[in-house]
Amino acid sequence: MRFAKAMAGAAVLAFGMANAAWADDAAVEALMKKSNCMKCHAVDKKKDGPAFKETAAKYKGKADAEAKLYTHLTTSPKVKIDGVEETHDSLKTKNDAEVKAVIKWILAK
Fold this sequence. Notes:
There is one protein chain. The protein has 5 helices and 2 strands. The model is unreliable at 6-22 (pLDDT under 50). By secondary structure, the protein is mostly helical. The radius of gyration is 18 Å and the shape is globular.
């Protein structure tokens, strides 16, 4: 009986954690949509900007990955698109935790 209760508790905990992760992904994707990220980027194919998988691969194992992406996503740097310099929009949030959630989402691709 104790084993069954323990397993039921573990299942509830796992389900709750899965829902929390989904909610975080949904919130990140909503912020990225609001910030127009998907206009120039996609998860697995190059558009005007690199695919998020390409960005994740570029920064894999690099100690400064999060710091570089944080700067890129919050300072509206100049980027070249088809040889033309444009201003990269920053994320439409001032919330540090939201910016870091987007960075983790990108690096997880």
